[in-house]
Structure formats: C-alpha cells, structure tokens
Write a structure and sequence with these properties.
Blueprint lengths: L23 H13 L6 H15 L4 E6 L10 H22 L3 E5 L13 E4 L2 E4 L13 H4 L4 H22 L15 H4 L3 H21 L4 H5 L4 E5 L3 H6 L1 E4 L4 E4 L4 E4 L9 H7 L5 E5 L5 H11 L8 E5 L6 H14 L5 E4 L7 E2 L5 E2 L2 H17 L6 E5 L34 H19 L2
Parallel strand pairs: 1-2, 1-14, 2-5, 5-8, 8-9, 9-10, 10-11, 11-14
Antiparallel strand pairs: 3-4, 6-7, 12-13
The chain binds phosphoenolpyruvate and cobalt (II) ion (CO).
The site of cobalt (II) ion has 5 residues, from loops.
Length: 449
Amino acid sequence: MPAGWFPDSWRARPRLQQPAYACQAELRAIVDELKQLPPLVSPWEVDALKTQLADAAAGRRFLLQGGDCAERFNDCRADTITNKLKILLQMSLVLVEGAQVPVIRVGRFAGQYAKPRSEDMETRDGVSLASYRGDLVNRPEFTEAARAPDPHLLLRGYSRSAMTLNYIRALVKGGFADLHHPEYWDLDFVAHSPLAQDYQRLVRRIGDSLRFMENILGARPGEIQEVDFYVSHEGLLLDYEEAQTRLLTPARRWYNLSTHFPWIGLRTSEADGAHVEYFRGIANPIGLKVGPAATPEQLLRLLNTLDPANEPGRMTLIHRFGHGRIAECLPPLVQAVRQAGRTALWVSDPMHGNTRVTSDGVKTREFDDILGELEQAFDTHAALGSRLGGVHFELTGENVTECTGGARGLSEEDLGRAYRSEVDPRLNCEQALEMAMLIARKMTALNSR
Ligand code: PEP
Ligand code: CO
C-alpha cells in the first residue's frame, strides 16, 4: 500500500464533482451499510483482467470497452442487458478478424451510474436547479425534489449493479456466448447494410474455424467456447467507491471491488485532487482519460503518482481529443511516455471529443467524425512506432437515433425519433457493428503493411 494512503485519505484533498448531500449523518449511515455488503467482483478477476491489459499493452491482445454514457436504473432489464452483451460480443468477433489477437471485452456497465457535469446548476425558464448527475445521485426530472442528491440512491445503485452483473454472469455461464452459434447473434442490420455480406462471411468463417479446431486439432469444446466479460465505470462518487474498497489480507492490497476496471474522468484528473489520491492506492487496473489540454509534464506526473512501479497492466490511457485535434495532441504525449521508459495501454475514445450541438440544441455526434478520429489514432500510433491497443465507445444494443451518419445515413431530422440518452449520444447497434467492421478493415490494412 502506498505511503500515507488509506481508503479515505482522499477526504483531505480538494474534491470535484461530488454532490452536496443535505444530511451528512444520513450519508454516513448509508455508506456504513454499503461497507457491510459483499463485493460485486473478486480480486482474482481484477488481477486476471490486469494481466490481459498488460498483454494488450504488449500487442498480444486488443481492448474493446463500451456501453452507455450513463446507465439508468430502469435499464436494468433482461432485454436491455442481453442486447448490450450481444452487441459487444458481435463487435469483438469482428475486431478479432482485424486485430488477429484475442479481444478483451469490457462493458461500461453494472455501475456506470454517476456523471460529471460541466455546470453545477441547470436553468430553465428562469428557474435554476442542481444538474442531473446520474441515477446514483439524483433524478433527471426538472423538479426540486428530483434534483436533490439522495444518498439512498447509492444503495439502489449497488443493488442494480449486482443484479446486472448477476444476469451477465448467468448468461455467459449458460452458453449465451457459445461461439458455436454465431447465427443466433444475427441482427436486422444485416438485411439493410451495405456491409451485410462481409458480416455473413465472417459468421461463416468463425463456424469453419471452430470446426477446424475441434475436428483437426482435437481441442475440447470447453476450451474454446468460453468468453469473458469484465465491467468498468467512471470512479466518480468517492463515498461510493470508498465503501467498496476492501483489503485482501494475505497480499495486504486494497481493491475497489465495485468493478474490475474503474477509470478517472477528464474533469477529475488533477494530480493533487481527491480522485487521483483515491486511485493511487487501489490495486485495480486504472483507466485515465486524456484530453487536448494535457501536457507531457502533467501526464508524466500523473503516471508517477498512480503507477510509481510502472507495473504491467496498471495504466490504460484513454485519449479523447476530437478528430480535428488528435494529429496535433497525441504525438508529444506518446513520445514523452516512451522517453520516460513507461509502458501503458493506449486506447482511443473517439466519442467525447466529437460532440456537437445541432441548431435545434440537440447533442449529437457524427459517425464520420468518430471514425475519422479512430483512423487517425491507428495511423498516428503506427507512425510513432507505438500501437493503438483498444477502443472505447458509447453505444447501446438498442435501435436509438442519437448519432448521425452510418450506413443508413441518419440525419439531424432523424434524431427526434428515438433519442433516449439523458446525457451523451450513443452509437446504436447498427452503427456500432458497422464501426467495428470499418476498424477491422483498418487494422487489416495496417497489419499487411
Ligand atoms: C464519459 O466517459 O462519459 C466522460 C464523461 O468522459 P470524459 O471524462 O472523457 O469527458
Ligand atoms: Co459520455
């Protein structure tokens, strides 16, 4: 455990993005209750993921991380959860083709309930109320009662995370992800998309290779049909994260067992702040969002604090610059990290730098901007002798209309039809799968160079 660190040492540091609860005694009672509840994941799973992320940093695996910008408590339903697993699984199959290495699947779910906001207050028609900060904190309806931070939601969030994870584990264990039946994962998309033939060819190839391995190599089915899913969320609400931080006794290491893979958001990544203090002491692999304002000095200082031992798999740097800025912002950071003798897994989040607001005031993202940032991320890393080792998306398994573009050419007029996000716009399932196919193509082209 690092010197001077305790699960609550963050309390002595300046804290950003934390809700102003009306009653501290009530908050404390709820946090004490959370501390008694069992953890949601095990330290052995967390360590297994860290080893896989170290492999990805070394070029032996590729990371696919994705899910909603913010989960909602009322999305904790069988169909929504199944659709999220399904789209991640389909994307991962497509990506394996391009990457030619195993793909690590990490959901932004089972705990992605707290959101950082740029403004503390929201004003409508002259009335100002606290901003909606995710279902773990308050509710989106624009009333005083709904927007008041409610500590009971911390318990509800823990329960919803546990139910989600429980169902995911049941599906995975029960054969949902059995690679022998990729045809079960067909989407309506396949009928409409210009990429339909590619997808069907891929499904056939997977079936052929499975039969090849089983028949020719004599591999036992159990060895090759298992697929893993890990979960991640932004470690934002420190009262909640602290309550789920547990000491693993023989190793004397503290783990955040609310999730496998927590990340530090862009707005809470200052080196002296409460979030970095909390994260430096936990043994989990850590994601760090990196934006256009990051300097090489700041990034190296953060890495020294969060990962003094340069431990394999510890740090994943998730860059999100925007398609217009990445070519200028990325190279100095990659060079600085390399010159410092550090290893990190570099991942592109092509969503958060490409948000725009339509003339009607709707938040959206354009498919080609997202793809543009990703393609530049692959090329820029390759040109520097580095490697893009993963991708991070905001997506959903539902047929929403929140991002424009893609094979069906969604326009701004289409956004009103099925816009459900309370926060950032997500790729819908067709756009997400199409994106995976286009990146697989890009990786194939890079590999053959
Ligand atoms: C997010 O991932 O939803 C998010 C808020 O991202 P960032 O911290 O990069 O702005
Ligand atoms: Co977001």
